[in-house]
C-alpha cells in the first residue's frame, strides 16, 4: 500500500485482487450516517428523543464539508449520549435546503425532541451554524450548551464559541 496523488491510498481490492482500489483517506464522511431523502430527514427529526439532533447540510466532496466531517466524526463517540449526528446532502434534499435557506455549505442545523433549536452566535441568523468549527472543543461546547438549554425548555441558547472562531458571512436574501 502506498500514498498516491490527491490524498488517495492505492491498495489491493479484496474482491478482485487487483491494485485498482483507492481509498480516500481525507474523506471522513463515510464514518457518519447519511440521510438522503426528505422522508429520512423527517424520520430522524421525529424519532431522535432526548438528544440533540445535528444535521450537517453540505456535499461530501466539498473541502470545508470534509473538514467539518472530520470534527463531527471524531467527536461523535464522545457525544453519543447527548447527540445524534447525520450528514444531509443539499442536492438530495432540496425541500430542507430551501426551508433552512442553505446558501452556504456546510450549514449545521440543530433539533431537540423535534424542535428546531436556535443559537445566538452574535450574527443575524440564529437558525444554523455556517462553516466549519475551528476546533473539536468548540463543537463539543456548543452541543453541551444546546443540550442543557433544551433540557430546561429553552428554544434558543447563547453560543459558547469565542466570536473570533465563528465564520463571518453576509446574509443573502433571495426572491425579494
UniProtKB/TrEMBL annotation:
GO terms for biological process: mRNA splicing, via spliceosome. InterPro entries: Dim1, Thioredoxin-like_sf. The keyword Phosphoprotein does not apply. Its main location: nucleus. It comes from the Eukaryota. Keywords: Cell cycle, mRNA processing, mRNA splicing, Nucleus. It is found in: Nucleus. Gene3D superfamilies: Glutaredoxin. GO terms for cellular component: spliceosomal complex; U4/U6 x U5 tri-snRNP complex; U5 snRNP. Pfam families: DIM1. Essential role in pre-mRNA splicing. Required in cell cycle progression for S/G(2) transition. Belongs to the DIM1 family. Homodimer. Interacts with the U5-102 kDa protein subunit of the spliceosome. This is Thioredoxin-like protein.
Amino acid at each position: 500500500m502506498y500514498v498516491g496523488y490527491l490524498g488517495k491510498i492505492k491498495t489491493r481490492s479484496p474482491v478482485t485482487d487487483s491494485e485498482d482500489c483507492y481509498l480516500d483517506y481525507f474523506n471522513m464522511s463515510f464514518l457518519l450516517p447519511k440521510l438522503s431523502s426528505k422522508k429520512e430527514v423527517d424520520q430522524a427529526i421525529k424519532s431522535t428523543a432526548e438528544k440533540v439532533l445535528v444535521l450537517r447540510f453540505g456535499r461530501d466532496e466539498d473541502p470545508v464539508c470534509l473538514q467539518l466531517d472530520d470534527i463531527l466524526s471524531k467527536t461523535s463517540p464522545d457525544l453519543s449520549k447527548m447527540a445524534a449526528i447525520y450528514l444531509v446532502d443539499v442536492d438530495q434534499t432540496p425541500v430542507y435546503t430551501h426551508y433552512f435557506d442553505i446558501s452556504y455549505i456546510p450549514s449545521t442545523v440543530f433539533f431537540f425532541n423535534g424542535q428546531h433549536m436556535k443559537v445566538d452566535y452574535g450574527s443575524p441568523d440564529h437558525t444554523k451554524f455556517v462553516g466549519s468549527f475551528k476546533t473539536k472543543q468548540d463543537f463539543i461546547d456548543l452541543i453541551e450548551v444546546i443540550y442543557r438549554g433544551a433540557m430546561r425548555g429553552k428554544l434558543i441558547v447563547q453560543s459558547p464559541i469565542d466570536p473570533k472562531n465563528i465564520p463571518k458571512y453576509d446574509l443573502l436574501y433571495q426572491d425579494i
